[in-house]
Amino acid sequence: LITLRNISKIYPIGSQQIVAVDALNLTINRREFAVLAGPSGSGKTTVLNIVGALDSATEGTVTVAGENYQQMTAKERADFRLQRIGFIFQSYNLIPVLTAAENAEFILMLQGIPAQLRRRQIEKLFTELGIGGLEDRRPNDLSGGQQQRVAIARAIAPQPAVILADEPTANLDSRTAEDLLELMRGLNRDKGMTFLFSSHDPLVIAHAARVIRLRDGRLEEDSSTPDS
Amino acid sequence: LITLRNISKIYPIGSQQIVAVDALNLTINRREFAVLAGPSGSGKTTVLNIVGALDSATEGTVTVAGENYQQMTAKERADFRLQRIGFIFQSYNLIPVLTAAENAEFILMLQGIPAQLRRRQIEKLFTELGIGGLEDRRPNDLSGGQQQRVAIARAIAPQPAVILADEPTANLDSRTAEDLLELMRGLNRDKGMTFLFSSHDPLVIAHAARVIRLRDGRLEEDSSTPDS
Ligand SMILES: Nc1ncnc2c1ncn2[C@@H]1O[C@H](COP(=O)(O)OP(=O)(O)OP(=O)(O)O)[C@@H](O)[C@H]1O
Ligand SMILES: Nc1ncnc2c1ncn2[C@@H]1O[C@H](COP(=O)(O)OP(=O)(O)OP(=O)(O)O)[C@@H](O)[C@H]1O
Ligand SMILES: [Mg+2]
Ligand SMILES: [Mg+2]
Q1: Which of A100, B110, B122, B210 lies at a C-alpha separation of 20 to 30 Å from A195?
Q2: pLDDT per position as a tens digit, B177-212
């Protein structure tokens, strides 16, 4: 489903070259439940951004669902991302002037789903995420972990083929994180959604069928558990 | 050092009253190393904001270092906070147009410390936090965990009497989090700095000499380890 071939990302800063990702080769298959693990600064967010067409690689090719990103126009990549990929950002990126429900239902609205049906879907999802009742709050009136779950709902609601989740449990207590991972494993199992996380959280790593370890932008280890 | 007496925080939202903190009594003594623990939404950030004079309580009194917050003017509270309290925000609040070093040295500059001396102090602190070499980057060119450590450096650099840290390890891997907690315990032991954390992280809770558990805005449990 997702193939990264010899992917590098280099930022020129002043006279330096910062190598954020270094000649990475990676294949993610349909229905996988995989996590990118590694120290702070090891390249996890950069890899997710490249997979999600939010960022371009300096070298190498990215192919997602048979589509080569470099052969698409900027508009085609944007449309592809909107319709086929759900992205949970490390810093949420919620829109402060919209309510939690308006933030979460955004893509459903673009897909032309009628308002009442959207509201029902969002309310159900919010309840499953433990934020039922918070639909009409603004993001600034929510706790950190509540904001995180609104960002999660926004990515999940359109049921995309692929979910890219950057540190989705960073601001959640272990009970809430467990519930979230159960929810996501259910979507993986029952709807065939592919999940690629980046995470430091041992809980996420424990739930993942495959752990891809990065260090200094390079692949250090790539292991699947035997029963996955 | 810090006394909260019968503290409540209530937000009126539409026709509802949201009780974020409910009749909380708490005393934090000098040199403590304590953590506020509890589920997402249980009131940790709200309590820290009240202790740090960033937010006012709806009911009850807050006394810090003998000063009653309600008896101070807004300017006096702001000065007090700037000089006596270091705050690490759950969402960092770094200034995007300043470099990492400029963000971190801000209060040292207000204190009139000369530029070269400031730079040396910040470089040393950045190295201890594992972000040495990132002084001249802008926050947007840093990873999530690197931004978090810039926010930590900003709070620690002026060596305030009290540090209030809201989820300081949320975006850090366990190795980096361990190093951070060692650094903070060193400051607690050698400089007598008082630390009050809010955290979900079992690592932080394990390092804390005292764990104050919240649930639904109320105190659920308040326990010190025998050797602390
Ligand atoms: N815009 C940029 N300009 C320069 N360097 C960058 C930029 N963005 C990221 N980097 C660097 O690239 C490296 C990888 O960053 P990335 O955000 O992918 O790390 P990460 O694994 O997600 O870290 P964390 O766990 O802290 O979120 C880091 O060393 C970071 O400083
Ligand atoms: N401005 C506000 N208006 C209304 N309700 C609020 C506001 N700020 C916080 N709340 C509510 O108060 C409660 C406590 O919030 P707080 O941010 O203190 O929780 P927290 O323990 O820090 O959670 P987390 O672990 O998710 O960061 C939550 O239910 C939250 O929705
Ligand atoms: Mg990251
Ligand atoms: Mg909080």
Answers
A1: A100
A2: 999 999 999 999 999 999 999 999 999 999 999 999
